[in-house]
Amino acid sequence: MTTGELQLELFKAIKSLIKEGIPPAEEIARLLNVSTDSAYRRMRGEKTLSIDELQTLCIHYKLSVDRLMGIQAGGIVFQGQYLDKKTFRFEEYVGSLIQNLTYMNSFKEKTFYYICKDLPIFHHYYFKEIAAFKWFFWLKTYFQFPGFERKKFRFEDHPDELFKMEQKVLSLYNQLPSVEIWNLESMNIFFRQIEFYRDGQVFESDDDVCVLYEAIGKLWDHLEKQAALGYKFNYNDAEQKKIGDFKMYFNEVLLGDNNMLIEMDGARMSYISHSTINFMFTRDEAFNTNMYNHIQNQMKRSTLISEVSEKERSRFFRIIRDKINSRKESLRT
To answer: Do the bridges between strand 178-182 and strand 110-115 make them parallel or antiparallel, or are there none, so unpaired?
Structure first.
């Protein structure tokens, strides 16, 4: 690859990362501290980038020169941060979700793929009861926050301002056309977390456990309605106005891994979850192609239960609903 070809590939990649409505030449001019005309000449390959300019652009847009040149160095570049309980702030974590989803929604053509090992985080935010429980579980059990050691779970402890942010996350996710691949294990982690706290007497009473299961039941009903229609709509919207496309697949054999892939105007990014709540992402073309092919393979081995396959859709939702109801019944014995 010649220097000129590399430069054109670089700006092609940069254009795919700049939000819609922002003139690329103006943003590049600002980053390089040059005129807009000078930025255009660099983008057209008429003026060669200096090493310092190349470094500035690659660092800002988190691009790998090796990847642009097609060099296979045996490694894949990921970006992300490890969440440290000493510095972790849940509000900042939710803020990062808002930032990422806003970026995804800035593209004209996009599709979000989610392989569901457990209940996707976005669905936590339909009901404050579910959001409150997950928030508490992560802070107490995963991060072991000071002051949570002997703390009992209470719905009212979940901050109202935080829930407003979480509802923003849900709103942004609902705008994204999405594909979710589910299996019969996808809700079991959530159920086990509830039973773990019940056995450990972390709930103040079984009444709170029942309230939580009722919220899960309402969420499950809503997801079934969305699957039947093939699109997402706001809970309690009597008119069920369409927000974003929703495709739901049911796989009886393969387990999920909570990995995600987003397609945005031809470009792809993969999000890999790890260590419970951490995630990292990559724009590596080869990795994303492999991830895309993996998802397509899972879809072929799954049953599409949104809009079509009413019998299979009813069976899937009934199996999980029976689990919810049996756990509610057990509270009365």
So the answer is: parallel
Q: List, in order, residues 6 or more apart from 20 with CB less than 8 Å away.
A: 106, 107, 108
58-to-18, 64, 66 alpha-carbon distances in Å: 13, 7, 11
Contacts of 62 (CB under 8 A, 6+ apart): 77, 79, 283
- Judged by DSSP in three states, 157 sits in helix
Cβ atoms of residues 69 and 1 within 8 Å:
yes
Please state whether beta strands 278-282 and 267-274 pair in parallel, antiparallel, or not at all (unpaired): antiparallel
Q: Which residues of 213-225 are buried (b: 16+ CB within 10 A; e: fewer)?
A: bebbebbbebbbe
Residues 6+ apart with CB under 8 A from 156: none
Q: Exposed/middle/buried for 132, CB within 10 Å: 0-12, 13-18, 19+?
A: buried
Angle separating helix axes 188-199 and 206-229, nearest 10 degrees: 170
Question: Which candidate, 99, 132, 130, places its Cα nearest to that of 217?
Answer: 130
Tell me the C-alpha distance between 230 and 224, whole Å. Answer: 10
Residue 313 CB partners (closer than 8 Å, separation 6+): 224, 227, 228, 248, 250, 305, 306
Give tens-digit pLDDT for 79-110. Answer: 666 666 677 788 988 998 999 999 999 999 99
What does the alpha-carbon distance between residue 180 and residue 166 come to, in Å, rounded to a whole number? Answer: 20
Over residues 266-296, the pLDDT tens digits come to 889 998 887 667 778 888 888 899 999 999 9
Asked whether residue 73 carries a pLDDT value surpassing 60, the answer given is: no
DSSP state of 317: H
pTM of the predicted protein model: 0.78
